[in-house]
Amino acid sequence: MSTESATTTLLWDGRTPAARGPAATLSIEAIAAAGVAIADEHGIGAVSMQAVAESLGFTKMALYRHVRGKDELLAVMVEAAVEEVPRLDPRQPWRERITVFADALADVWRRHPWVPWVTRGRRLMGPREVAWVECALEPLVDTSLTPTERLDAVFLLFGHLRNTHSLDTAGTQPWHDPALGERLRQSAEHYPALADLSSVGASEDNGRSFGLERILDGIERLHESRA
Amino acid sequence: MSTESATTTLLWDGRTPAARGPAATLSIEAIAAAGVAIADEHGIGAVSMQAVAESLGFTKMALYRHVRGKDELLAVMVEAAVEEVPRLDPRQPWRERITVFADALADVWRRHPWVPWVTRGRRLMGPREVAWVECALEPLVDTSLTPTERLDAVFLLFGHLRNTHSLDTAGTQPWHDPALGERLRQSAEHYPALADLSSVGASEDNGRSFGLERILDGIERLHESRA
DNA sequence: CGGATCTGCGTCCTTCGGATACTGTTTCCT
DNA sequence: AGGAAACAGTATCCGAAGGACGCAGATCCG
Question: I want to staple A218 with a disulfide (CB 3.0 to 4.6 A). Which of A79, A92, A121, B214 is the partner?
Fold first, then answer.
């Protein structure tokens, strides 16, 4: 019986309505939806207690009756924004299913570009976000990977998709400052490989499909080595 | 002739000392070093203009004579924290060299745990950080990958190392809240693959070596397919 | 009906990044 | 030599941020 954080209980069980006192006008769902709307429209930087409350017609402090703080606000926002997992066809080969999964995840992240930025670091996950992990894990059950390896593979996949989803979530590539490309070309003796590259240019999708294929190839090789 | 941002000029050329006026007591190097020290000791959250200035015995506003704002402070901090790239033995096979590189990067990130957290998203890179990209790129010149593919491979590598370096930079794994593992076990019908896993546990290194091997395997397969 | 309880509000505090204006110092140019 | 220009560091002020605390009114249970 491990003691659970209040935020985890909120994410998984919701709030039990109060027995006494006036009925709540606000709800966690409304708060989360308002936060998501602001983040979608004006970016995650525009999400403040004040802004969320104002968009609902309440004062800032009213939010704290439903949410313990900004971290918990973000947690419920993520849980609201992350939609249902895709239904993967079990008859398809595992590699195909992973690709479908990756596209579905990209769709959600396209609708809510702030999600891959927020869902990093130590934090608490809700049932829907966990469902996405489960969903990615499931195709790998068909492989010869051990359970631990499957999990490692899923996080390898998630990390790569996050890193290549947009430039805002990636470790930036240097030549996105065009002036820097010029510098690299000028000091070609220090950066021969990069200078060579600046004329070629980077790939369209930030290397998403390249990395995905490499990862799946790597998994496949491990899988086949045990067949 | 593309116009270059002032921050990029600062990072690559440093500051040209003023012709007139009193000599500066502060220096960018001192500011960067102070910021790095605070971040190393108390975390990146403790780095504020106030804190950095105070640790140097100056007022907050004095920093703005040397640094245009917080973003630029972080940029020079990263550039100061990122050390010289490792010298890779060109006689070693490319895969070996990449592994050595990855370990060297991990060493730097261990000394400055905030660096992998800060070096994300659109930002400006300095010469030393670019040198690390160059360093990772160089072994791949021995492979049959195209220049663009080499670059994609490097960012695949960087992303994975960042994601697995520590839990603070990773997309968190759900069962780090021990209570959540219990929940997953209880609702095993919703999360069969995860529930199965929670008894096994996650890997020690957040899947770093697993992912690294898979990535290198994937690159190797592509390389060999063209031999 | 009265106390307990809950919701939402008003006020206050700290910290943050940053703009602006000022003081004193150094150097170049006439 | 002397004034003007440029520069370094400071003092003050501001708005926005997250959040603590106490209060008023509404609601329900005994």
Answer: B214
Shared domain for B213 and B120, answered yes or no, is: yes
Whether B1 has a pLDDT exceeding 70, the answer reads no
CATH of residue A31:
1.10.10.60
User: Which residues are CB-neighbours of B114 under 8 A, at least 6 positions away?
Assistant: B39, B40, B43, B44
Residue ranges making up the domain that contains B129? 94-170+206-226
Q: CA A31, A35, A38, A40 torsion: positive or negative?
A: negative
Strand C lies under 7 A from the Cβ of residue B62: no
Find the residue closest to C27 using CA and C1' atoms.
B20
pTM of the predicted model as reported, rounded to 2 decimal places: 0.93
Reading the block at residue B29, the tokens are 């190097």
Mean pLDDT by 10 residues, chain A (227 residues): 84 89 93 98 98 98 98 98 96 98 98 96 93 96 95 96 92 77 88 81 88 98 93
Q: Which residues pair with B70 in a beta bridge?
A: none
Rounded average pLDDT over B32-54: 98
DSSP code at position B175: G
Would you state the structure tokens that stand for residue A7, as one six-digit string?
A: 């935020």
pLDDT at A2: 64
Helix (H) or strand (E) holding B96: helix B94-111
- Which is higher by pLDDT, A199 or B219? B219
Q: Indicate if the alpha-carbon torsion angle A87, B218, B117, A43 is positive or negative.
A: negative
Domain count for chain A: 2
Question: Could you say which DSSP state residue B226 is in?
Answer: T
Query: What pLDDT score was predicted for residue B21?
Result: 86
> Cβ(A202)–Cβ(A164) under 8 Å?
no
Contact partners, residue A17, CB within 8 Å, separation at least 6: A23, A24
b/e burial code for range A23-39 (CB count within 10 A of at least 16 → b)? eeebebeebbbbbbebb
Same domain, B31 and B117: no
Pair A111, A40 in one domain: no
On whether residue B164 sits in a domain, the answer given is yes
Q: How confident is the model at residue B11 (pLDDT cuts 50, 70, 90)?
A: very high
Task: Give pLDDT, residue B199.
Answer: 67
Question: From the Cβ of B19, is strand C under 7 Å away?
Answer: yes
B17 CB below 7 A from strand C atoms: no
Å between CA of A180 and C1' of C17: 28
Of all residues in chain B, what percent carry a pLDDT higher than 90? Answer: 78
CA dihedral (A201, B158, B163, B40) positive or negative? negative
